[in-house]
Amino acid sequence: MAHSGINVLFAGHNFARLMGGLWTSVWIAALSILFGGILGILFGFLRTRSNRLVKLIFRLYLEFFRIVPTVVLLFLVYYILPRQFNVNWPGTWMAVLAFTLWVAAEYSDIVRGALESVPKHQIEAGEALGLNDRQLFWYVSLPQAFQLALPGTINLATRVIKTTSLLMLISVMDVINIGQQIIEANNNEHPTTVFWVYGLIFILYFIVDYPLSWWERRLRKNSKEVK
Amino acid sequence: QAAANQSSVAAIKKRGVIRIAVFGDLKPYGWVNQDGKRVGYDVYLARQIGKDLGVKVKFVQVNANNRVDTLNSNKADLVLANFTVTKERKQIVDFAKPYMKVSVGVVSKKSHPITKLSQLKGKKLIINKGTTAENYFTQHQTGVTQLKFDSKTQQFNALKHGRAQALADDNSYLYAWVKNNPSYTVSIKHLGAQQSISPAVKKGNKSLLNWTNKEITKLNKNGFFEKDFNQELKPYFGKEVKANDIILEK
Amino acid sequence: MSWSVIVQSLPTFEKALWVTIWMSAVGIALAALVGLIVSLAEYFRVPVLRQVLTVYAEVARNTPLLLQLFFLYYAFPVLGWKMSATACGIVGLTFLGGAYMADGFTGGFEGVSKTQIESGKALGMSDWQLARYVVFPQGLALSVPAFAANVIFLIKETSIFSVVAIPELTNTALDLIGLYYRSNEYLLVLVLAYAVILIPVILFLDWLERRVRHGAFGN
Amino acid sequence: MATELMRVDHLDKYYGDWQALHNINFSIHEGEVIALVGPSGSGKSTLIRTLNGLEPYQKGTITFEGKKVTPDKVSWQKLRQEIGMVFQSYDLFPNLTVMGNILLGPTKVQKRDEGEVKAEAQKLLERFELADQADAYPRQLSGGQKQRIAIIRALVMHPKLMLFDEVTASLDPEMVRGVLNIMQELAKKDHMTMIIVTHELTFAAKVADQVLFLEDGRLRETTSAKQFFTNPQTDRAKEFLASMDY
Amino acid sequence: MATELMRVDHLDKYYGDWQALHNINFSIHEGEVIALVGPSGSGKSTLIRTLNGLEPYQKGTITFEGKKVTPDKVSWQKLRQEIGMVFQSYDLFPNLTVMGNILLGPTKVQKRDEGEVKAEAQKLLERFELADQADAYPRQLSGGQKQRIAIIRALVMHPKLMLFDEVTASLDPEMVRGVLNIMQELAKKDHMTMIIVTHELTFAAKVADQVLFLEDGRLRETTSAKQFFTNPQTDRAKEFLASMDY
Ligand SMILES: Nc1ncnc2c1ncn2[C@@H]1O[C@H](COP(=O)(O)OP(=O)(O)OP(=O)(O)O)[C@@H](O)[C@H]1O
Ligand SMILES: Nc1ncnc2c1ncn2[C@@H]1O[C@H](COP(=O)(O)OP(=O)(O)OP(=O)(O)O)[C@@H](O)[C@H]1O
Ligand SMILES: [Mg+2]
Ligand SMILES: [Mg+2]
């Protein structure tokens, strides 16, 4: 019985379909991280420089995303945007949008934190050389902040990848959704399908996520040792 | 209205694609076989509609509880997802002529069949969010605890694992399901009035609504639904279900 | 946007709010306990147990809660292990949260400076005394920020309980949308409900963080 | 006497409500070396940072090469090309090599030709026995090496005045000498104008022409180095010298 | 002569493959003060840490009060109650008050009566002019005060031997004196047996009976303090003394 369940994974195009679903999840994650990362750097930079009002606005933006669970965020974008704003994209792009906004919020805080933890005396050493604000940012703050922000960046990426599991809820044909289709098509004949399909997806997520979190851990350890 | 125009017959033809919302995990109405191909009673109809319109069909997979929003948010032009016509739904979407009849049924274990609503009191009942079954049990106080799921896959798995004593959904696919799960039976065949299932379009989309009405009438006349039934449903149903239980009279 | 729709839904949401709150509370408490056990095994380098728990933590950290719940709820019964939805939710949250909490505590313990540990040793402290008087008080204080982040994270993760039919906030909102098609109203109430839970929690944790920091390190 | 390079008149500086510097007056001439000494917290760092525009001041004037300094960002940015500064903390940029650190100011700020600056940098590195380190990263260097490179990084901008804030305070004792040697050479050979904050009184006695003794934000004594170390005027300076001389 | 308190024979210590200490031999008698000096990186900290069991060693023996030390965790834990140690970094426990810091060892490790220890601690605090600080937290103290309290914390355990690893190295110059004063008093008045790693050679000359000069992990000289500072035997020691005396 258990045997028949595992065969379902390789029957027909099932395995290829699952991999296709995984690819959907991965590229949505990748694009969101890319777009969200760019926005996040911009927002984070603005948060260290701007006047009170701009800071407050970005702070509120961040707090909104801190409070609203990502599932809810997906539904907000999925239900509200098309109707209220006539935005009419396919589900995958809705997902990219929702994730991008979320990543931008979280990443802006990582970037702000990193920029602020560049030691003050480094900035002063730059000032003492006569660097102007723009030069200080490009030659001193940014390269050092990048190092400081790297572990946080990777950590966020792992979370985004894991969160793609929610795409199923807004009908994106992600790996879980395809898994459910397979389960539905075979469950009656092979009751253990559910176990093998979810098991495979579980492992797939682990395979994608683990190297990143391993890398993050190593970076953090190294930076501790340098200290 | 700009939004309605996006789904007018002219717009669809111009685009060359009609977007039709279907289920992906509702065997045998809308599901995906192991080759990754969408099949089922609704899907069969969808493909025919595409052919008759002379456009390609793009499927949008939905769950029971986002069928309305899929239309309202312009993600699909037409819903063919076992969409039961109800008073409430009529207020927010426009239904075309029905192409199936249905009523809410209850499935339970053969060994402990639930044949009367009163037996449900104090028990657990599985339903799918956004279905007529949910409507029914929300409106009729039966003293049952509802377990609400997002998808068909989830709800049937939950039933099999004994997470509740019964499951309520459209009787049309309960029949199919019990065929493969012979220890269960559709112990209540009809709850409430007989209802019908229709294609739905966004409210105000007269153009597509009229076209669809004509299409249904035409298909009904030339026996399309019988063919559809025989090909997509019959193999999954038990002997006790006849074409007449599902499709409408000509 | 209809005011009356919102008002009518409030009693339903209130019930769901309590479900979210109590399940979060229990799940987080258990997660903290598991996290503490894992981090203690790591700190005392307990053979075998430590390796086993490390594998657990890696698996829990690198897979989505949604799949963990699917497994517990839909796949395990195939093998004959069945838990109620509530139990699945709590176990899932504990499983995931335990790994995150362990990370936080371990980070705190490792953050205690080497010189502090050596000055404890120089006073002749045994391993246990070192842990009791030096590493734990300082390490736990250091781990408060991570703990706070985890609490907020885990409360938000309960929104995924929806997939195993637990009637918490998100499930309730989706359900109401499916029944009455008033997505604007219900989503608004849903967001507000999370704000009602999380804002006090965030404020409390901020306060706790400042207090502990000052108590332990004076800054 | 040589021309006056910088003068400070009636300078007051506050941190919030609290006055850190009280009515500071002094001047420094070309080629002169001033040692700024005093107990911890007396305001030495505050004063020397003010002279480089890193701290705003609330009253008084700073005059550089006969021109009153307008205390805004842009003027200071320009002026800092004429005034080099080295701090106590090793402040090389960790993401750049030694050469990268040295080139940054001349090429990006002064827009000088990279090849020319590089040649000059190479010469300075050789002069101070650091030629091997040109491609090293700061983390690969000892504290003493880092400080010497920080000095070169400032020198290559051709400053007219160099400010040093306890540049040897975080160094291992044996490293101190190498750094002090450079500073001594700059003073005696290059006749660099310098203001040096230091706790190394023996060194100060050797290189300084003048000593400013600061206490509680006030200049208590401004005398020639010779006189200060052999025969300080004020009791406070005497006490201070006694406390430092274990 | 007084009895031998500790002796070290043929001690070798490796960090991984790299040998940090080579064949170290010396002994210290009751009431004696040894100064351990040498360039940075020569292994002073490594040696003194080894004497307190904070670093394992690979060859040789350490003998304490005539008994060979078995180099395991539990023996060292016991022994450390007899050997006090103070480090360069201010290492008071930040979550405890001054009194809490002082009481921790005697009451928790030695299980002595709290009241009695408290009275003794109070006396020590008074003796070293820190009585007002008993209820303060470390963060409220200056570096010099912290180091003096760290010394008291070690003393209250009644150690037979005290180890000091550059206890004044991170202090502001004016703070140094207070700490050195205590150590001098311990040496001269209390006749405490002590091994002191220090860069303050003037101080070492004053308090030490013997000097161990370490270089590259090898003991290059073991002589009386008088001889070492006036007339060192080896060239290396001469160089070292010259480099330190700027
Ligand atoms: N940014 C600041 N804000 C408020 N007060 C400050 C600030 N920087 C320094 N101070 C205070 O100003 C006084 C002078 O400090 P400063 O650092 O100039 O002393 P210093 O003479 O350089 O001491 P040290 O020898 O320890 O370097 C001190 O009381 C210090 O606490
Ligand atoms: N944990 C360690 N692992 C590897 N090498 C080490 C370790 N600790 C010290 N060393 C090396 O051992 C040598 C001796 O170091 P040690 O700290 O004992 O010198 P020191 O004489 O105390 O120097 P300082 O005067 O700078 O304190 C140095 O080369 C150092 O790099
Ligand atoms: Mg200073
Ligand atoms: Mg050392």
Automatic annotation (TrEMBL), chain A:
Record family assignment: Belongs to the binding-protein-dependent transport system permease family.
Lineage top rank: taxon: Bacteria
One Pfam family per UniProt: BPD_transp_1
Membrane topology summary: Multi-pass membrane protein
UniProt keyword Glycosyltransferase present: no
Segments forming domain ABC transmembrane type-1: 22-213
Compartments it resides in: Cell membrane
Keywords per UniProt: Cell membrane, Membrane, Transmembrane, Transmembrane helix, Transport
Ranges that cross the membrane: 26-46, 58-81, 87-105, 166-183, 195-215
SUPFAM superfamilies xref list: MetI-like
Protein name: Amino acid ABC transporter permease
TrEMBL record, chain C:
Compartment(s) where it occurs, according to its Swiss-Prot or TrEMBL record: Cell membrane
PANTHER family: AMINO-ACID ABC TRANSPORTER PERMEASE PROTEIN YHDX-RELATED, MEMBRANE COMPONENT OF AMINO ACID ABC TRANSPORTER
Transmembrane keyword on record: yes
Coiled coil residues, start to end: none
Entry keywords, A to Z: Amino-acid transport, Cell membrane, Membrane, Transmembrane, Transmembrane helix, Transport
Record-linked Pfam families: BPD_transp_1
SUPFAM superfamilies: MetI-like
Protein's recorded name: Amino acid ABC transporter permease
Annotated ABC transmembrane type-1 domain residues: 17-209
Matches recorded under InterPro entries: AA_ABC_transptr_permease_3TM, ArtM/GltK/GlnP/TcyL/YhdX-like, MetI-like, MetI-like_sf
Superkingdom of source: Bacteria
Membrane topology label: Multi-pass membrane protein
Transmembrane intervals: 20-44, 89-109, 130-155, 186-205
Gene source species: Limosilactobacillus alvi
UniProtKB/TrEMBL annotation, chains D, E:
InterPro entries found in the cross-reference section: AAA+_ATPase, ABC_ATPase_HisP-typ, ABC_transporter-like_ATP-bd, ABC_transporter-like_CS, MetN_ABC_transporter-like, P-loop_NTPase
Organism superkingdom: Bacteria
The UniProt record lists the keyword Transport: yes
One Pfam entry name: ABC_tran
Protein name, UniProt field: Amino acid ABC transporter ATP-binding protein
GO molecular function, one term: ATP binding
Keywords recorded for this protein, A-Z: ATP-binding, Nucleotide-binding, Transport
Family: Belongs to the ABC transporter superfamily.
ABC transporter domain segment(s): 6-241
